[in-house]
Amino acid sequence: MEPRAIASILEKIARSSLSVTAYFQRYKVPFGRSQYFQYKARLAANGLEGLVDGRSQGNHRTLTTDAQAFIRGVHEADSTLSLRQIADRLESSLGIGVDPATVSRHLRAAGLKIQWPRPAEAQTIISSCGGFEIIGALALHLGWARHTAEAMVEERERFRRTVAYRRERVWCDREGRNAEGQFTKAYNRRADIRAQRFASVEDKRKHKNYSRMGLFQSSEFVLQRKCLGVLALPLITLNGWSRSANNPLGNALEQFCGYNYQHHTLDKFLRELKYLGISEWLLREQVSFWRQHWSEFDTLGLPFLCYYVDGNTKPLWSQKRVKQNKVTMLGRVMGCLEQVFVHDAFGHPVYLETYAGKAPLGEHILGLFEKIEAALEGPGPALKVRRVIVMDAASNGVATLRAFAQQEKYHYITALDDNQWNPRKVMEEGRAKRYYYGEATLRECRLELEDSREKGYLVEVRAVRIDWDYGKRTVLITSLPREAVGASLVVKAYFDRWPCEELQFRSMKSFACLNRVAGYGKKKLPDERVRATQEQLQHQITGLRQRLKVPLKQIADQEEQVASAIEKERRIRFRGKVVEGQRTLQDAARTELNALSRGIAASRRQIKAIESQWGKPLRRLRRYEKEWLRLQGKDHVYRIDVELDQIVGFFRIALVNIASWFLSECCAKHPMSLARFLHAILLMPAEIRLTKDVRRVLFKRNLKDPQMMALLEPALTRLTGLNIRDLDDRTIEFGLQ
Q1: What secondary structure, in 3-state letters, does 229-284 show?
Q2: Residue 412 near residue 404, CB atoms below 8 Å
Q3: What distance separates the 2 farthest-apart alpha carbons in the chain?
Q4: Any idea where the domains of the chain sit in the sequence?
Q5: Closest Cα partner for 573 from 553, 592, 545?
Q6: What is the SS3 assignment for 160?
């Protein structure tokens, strides 16, 4: 009841002529006789406030009026404080200890709102190489991670329908495993496993149980994360100087791809892709992908579209006999893998193929372009544009020129070596003209070249002779018609190769570790060429021995006499001793020794006389025998698998293109080498702040390089403006501290 109502009832009872007991018996009162006397005493002592029902505020109240005011004041000053923090402040200020629930009840009773659920505090992570976040963000923004994972899923589903997958093994080979099915050391010690350790992937596929591979059980999301992890391998291994991703720098994978993968996990992922045989599919798919992100038809002022073809020879250190070629970076002929790269007009790598030993360039270049022709054309009707392939002098064989002459879609520009230029081959020579883009004099020519493989077959080609003002001469040959493309444009297209492709390609090798072999298996194959040479040498040796039967018999007799005399001479010398530099012998022994020496000299003179009489046939026989002995044990050669190397090459090309896209689109095409980009930006430390919706990357400003920081700050602003979202659907923001 309200205090005023209680006071009114007390006043009525006091004014009544009835006693208190009689009043309560006659009238209905909302409280009892004893309560009446309590209310009367409290009213007399405290007035109306004494009649207030204290039970509504709880029994044994801890919060005083001052404590309640303190709680309201702290909450209104900072509404982000938690209930526990408010209770702690109350205890530290007023000495009143209460539970967070008590604080919550008082704030609700006071009509104050409490934010729930509480906002999670930002998780702060310090990364020693925060620049990797740029590569990871662009891989997601450009759709590379999703595109690659989708291509893998598509090829995986296609493989499920093949006979190799349907004939999978249903039994489990448990030899060398423990009770839980895990591999042990005994498995690697098995003779059959050790024999197949470096076997060819073609042989391993025959006994592979594909259904148990993790690749066939991974979701597209997991494939995206693993693709990002493999993409970062050249960065976290410092361009291949470290052989493992388990080093301290490898912990950057946790932020780069969302999971801190162990090295063996990424290694197993690549090996499973190798068994799937997916390299060619990935390389072809990337051509159309990157074509969408580069302005292909901006031809730098040329009336045609240029593609540059270049090779990269990687040394292969193996004790086995493998196919060899000259490795320019080491200056020696040795086992190697050679990669053929196709670059667009701006030097961006478009496609690659890897070969064991020497790559079949020349006439095979057109076959290379036929594989990616559909991706280069793009959707819609074919565009009528001249496509020119610029090659170095190693691909200027007549067989290559004949292959280009048999089609009209592609033209070529290449150079002649100095030893290939001969004024006698010139059929026609035009007037001298100055080079529009440099200091040189140009002359249009028509050359006549002979096919070295088919004697007498002649090919006429257009040539441009360049006489530089500093005295050097260069000769270019091309299939472009003279009426359509002038000599200056031909020369410009060829020499633009150095700033547009060669310099960038050299930087790519160090940035993306293109010079390193990823891993390989070997398959032993008969070397038919060596076997044919051995058979030919054996036939020639047999014929010469039959022809030289008499002189060979005479030489053998003389050599037998020499050998016998040398043995007797050795026994005589053994009997004597050397005293003060002189051999002491008896007179008879010395006489016999001198006679043996004269006999040996006479036999050797007789051998030389026979050899002079039969000089050329004998020398030819010795040469054939020496070559035959050299080829013994070389009738087999090991072919190196290139599947894994091409898969890793696919990821390395992607890394180069993503870095080039950032420099082109975010850095306003500021000239910067990839090596400079790696050391000045990608290896910058950063602080990563993670909340539920935002991933903020704050780079630590490098005060020693203000010019680079001035370039980086607007680039990060442009990058933030792309509204990139990570794999956890958080918005990625970039900034400089």
Answers
A1: HHHCHHHHCCCCCCCCCCCHHHHHHHHHCCCCCCHHHHHHHHHHHHHHCCHHHHHH
A2: yes
A3: 178
A4: 3-109, 283-523, 527-639
A5: 592
A6: helix
Place of tokens 């002979």: 450
* Collapsed DSSP state (helix, strand, coil) of residue 578: strand
Residue-wise over 440-475: b if at least 16 C-beta within 10 A, else e? bebbbbebebeeeeeeeeeeebbbbbbbeeeeeebb
Closest Cα partner for 487 from 437, 528, 451?
437
**Per-residue pLDDT tens over the stretch 101-130:** 888 888 888 888 777 766 667 788 888 888
Structure tokens at 439: 């200091």
Q: How far apart are CA 386 and CA 485, in angstroms?
A: 11
d(CA 580, CA 416): 68
Tokens found for residue 226: 């693993």
Report DSSP state, residue 712. H
Task: Specify burial of residue 388 (Cβ count, 10 A radius: 0-12, 13-18, 19+).
Answer: buried
Top CATH class of 283-523 equals alpha beta
At 581, is the secondary structure helix, strand, or coil?
Answer: coil
Residues 6+ apart with CB under 8 A from 161: none
Q: What is the mean pLDDT of residues 196-214?
A: 79
Cα atoms found within 13 Å of the Cα of residue 107, Cβ hemisphere only: 23
The CA distance from 255 to 18, in Å, is 89
What is the rounded CA–CA span in Å between residue 217 and residue 268?
A: 14
Rg (CA), the chain: 45
Give the tens place of pLDDT for each residue, 593-652. 899 999 999 999 999 999 899 989 999 999 999 999 999 988 899 888 889 999 999 999
